[in-house]
Amino acid sequence: MDARTKFNVTVTGPAEGQPMLFAHGFGCDQNMWRHVAPAFADDFRVILFDLVGAGGSDLSAYDPVRHATLQGYADDVLEIIRELDLRDVVFVGHSVSAMIGALAEVAEPERFDKLVMVGPSPRYIDEAAYVGGFAEEDILDMLDSLESNYLGWSAAMAPAIMSNPDRPELGEELTESFCRMDPTVARQFARVTFLTDTRPELARVTTPTLVLQCSNDLIAPVAVGTYVRDTIPGSTMTMLEATGHCPQLSAPHETVAAMAGFVRGGPGE
Amino acid sequence: MTSESLAREAFLEALVYDDPVQLYERAPCGFLSTTPDGVIVKCNGTFRTWIGLEAGDIVGKLSFVDLLTPGGRIYHETHYAPSLKMHDSVREIALDLVRSDGRRLPVLVNATLDRDIDGRPRVIRIAVFDATERRRYERELLRAKEAAESSEERAHSLARTLQQTLIPPTPPTIPLLDVAAAYRPAGDGVEVGGDFYDVFPAGHEDWVVVIGDVCGKGVDAAVVTALVRHTVRALAVGHDEPSRILEGLNEVLLQHETDRFCTVALMRLRRDSDGWYAVLGTGGHPSPLLVRGDAAPEPCGGGGPLIGIFDHPSFAETTLRLLPGDLLLLYTDGVPEGRRDSDLYGDERLLATISRHRGSAADLVGGLVADVLDFQRQDPRDDIAVLAIGVPHA
Asked: What ipTM was estimated for this complex?
């Protein structure tokens, strides 16, 4: 199966534009970018996709072994990049996808021009002097919370996961499927997301990176954003007034403005 | 209108025009209003009682997420909040509230996001329902589902283990004889089938090749299959003739407390000058097929009484010589009786498939199994065992 189908890839903007690849975070799908991505579609080739198991991705592409680590998800990103033959990619990753982008960049840096990390965290669990914001039991508690919430609709969501071009209501359904994920995949993805430690990889990132940090983000506190900025060589951080973990939804204009200068600036080295 | 009915009407009217403040404060669910970023600006008495805090401790001071467990906060920030911004409402979100004394209250939450005329978020209204009992029940259901899944997994692995004891993982290597075999269980492989095969040495120079099918499926059939396989091995020590081995097997099955029977094709092979000399005996089993040169496959032996039913059956023997280039195919009835809807795989397809795969024993076994499975859309209703031997060219 090709990557376009597997990951429900959608492409807008001029074909000759510099590619700008948006990756959504845990719990969401590409609809997450609906207020931000269009602002770049005049001059960039804007590419959106769903992580495997989320939104309109093909569930059969989920492989418990490959996707037991974030590297598996990073390999998915590289698969898209290779299939679409993208070069000089501006990669915009939200939440865990900021780390997925970092891993992809470390594997094939020559493909990337810039990284934008929205609310990144390389490690959610506190450890010695490092403050991630959570204790390990908080993460287990969250897995419990996931189970309770996926209980009611695990069967109901199946049709939205299978793509079916004969059904005109599909577009609507995909929006409805927002924040929905196959329960088994969601649980494993939650484990991988919240128990992985990507800190050692950050220092190996060589592509110019911008960290967008929200005020009062429970998931990725300011101290964590600062850690990411201090660890990725030559990266910069912009503080947003937006609160919460999803500025692209709560403050899309501010988010677009904070990215614009960086992504339209000259090419990275 | 009587005075009594007038009084009742007045009473009902008074109920309808209940004091709106009481209606809000004492509603049988918690009500909250928050700013778009979550700070609680108003909440009702029911909610304050559940939480165990006064209005002064809550309003303007706490956000809704502050009242959740840490895990619930993650869920709130990654699912609930984005979904609310996207759809302007969320329904039936399961969360735990943390009361002032630290105890948890499992709740279900519905929320709506109100926007001003310019579409800017104005206020979030949240209704909270006590779901203590429901959540307990859900947890029981979840545990039961997990238990069911793990016992299904155990059953699968038991079936696999059991099946492996009936089928040698790889046939032995025999000088100057190619052996290939394959086994595919019926359906999803949860149930152990009754098909088996075995290849083992007998005496100094001889080899015994056996294939069979015990009627039925499941553990009971597997027990009999194991008995049959080991009985054949034991009998082959003392008896050279396949017919005598089948007779002995018949007696063992009759004496065993089972009414299961089986079909068997059994062959004793001895190396001779330029190939192999074979004596074949069958009890109720499909005829093995000899594939020689470009000629049509030729049935050898076959038929005979089922084993484990009759008191004094007699089994015929067929002798044949296998020459370089020859292939001999043995199979169970899962092959010709493979079904697609009302269509049988049948002998004609079997012969056609053989003629396309006469290159080697491995080619024949691989090609035939693949074709039978394709015919049944990869979902065979009976198990399939296929074994081929071939004499390589010198």
From this structure: 0.82
